[in-house]
Specification:
By secondary structure, the protein is an alpha+beta fold. The protein is built from 1 helix and 11 strands. Strands 1, 2, 3, 4, 5, 6, 7, 8, 9, 10 and 11 form an 11-stranded antiparallel sheet that branches.
Length: about 170
C-alpha cells in the first residue's frame, strides 16, 4: 500500500513538472507564419515570418529557396535572412544535395555566403547518408574541412543495424 501511494505521488509530481515545463516553453517560443510558394506542384520557396501576437503583425525572418534536378530530386536549399535596415533578403547558407545510385547514398554539402566574393564559399561540411536496399538510412558520416580547407576529416559517424546503433565520434 505504501509503495503504491509513493508511486502515485511520484507519477503526479513528474506529470505536474512536465506540464509546468511545457507551459513555460510554450510561452517563451515565438510564433511563426509559413508561406509556401509552389510552381507546378513543386515547392520553390518557403518564407518564415515571426508573428507579434500583441498587435497581430509579422516580420520577415527566413527565406528558403529550393532547386531540383531534372528528375525532380532536391538539388539545393538556400537560406536567406531578412535585413530590416536594407529592406532586403541577405544570403546566409546553402545545402547542396547529390545522389549516387551506384553507392546508394545521398550527400549533403553545407556552404556559407561570402559577402566579399558575392557568392557561396566552397562547402565546409559534408554529410553522407548510406541507404539500405529498403531506402532506409543505414549509416551517416559527417565530414568537415581540415585547416588546409582541402582535405575532409570525419567528425561523426553512425552505423545503424537491425540489432544496434554504433556511434563513433572523431
Amino acid at each position: 500500500m505504501k509503495k503504491s501511494v509513493l508511486n502515485i505521488v511520484v507519477v503526479a509530481f513528474v506529470a505536474l513538472f512536465s506540464v509546468s515545463v511545457s507551459s513555460v516553453n510554450a510561452q517563451s517560443l515565438p510564433e511563426f507564419l509559413y508561406n509556401t510558394y509552389e510552381e507546378n506542384g513543386v515547392v520553390t520557396s518557403k518564407e518564415i515570418c515571426k508573428l507579434n501576437s500583441f498587435d497581430n503583425t509579422h516580420k520577415r525572418h527566413i527565406l528558403y529557396e529550393y532547386t531540383y534536378t531534372d528528375n525532380g530530386m532536391l538539388k539545393s536549399r538556400k537560406a536567406s535572412y531578412w535585413n530590416e535596415k536594407r529592406n532586403a533578403w541577405e544570403h546566409s547558407a546553402i545545402i547542396l544535395y547529390s545522389y549516387n545510385e551506384l553507392l546508394n547514398d545521398v550527400t549533403l554539402e553545407y556552404a556559407e555566403w561570402n559577402d566579399s566574393k558575392n557568392d557561396f564559399d566552397s562547402p565546409i561540411e559534408r554529410a553522407v547518408y548510406q541507404l539500405s536496399n529498403e531506402q532506409l538510412i543505414s549509416s551517416y558520416t559527417l565530414y568537415e574541412k581540415d585547416n588546409s580547407e582541402i582535405n575532409w576529416s570525419i567528425k561523426e559517424h553512425f552505423s545503424l543495424d537491425t540489432h544496434f546503433i554504433a556511434y563513433n565520434m572523431q
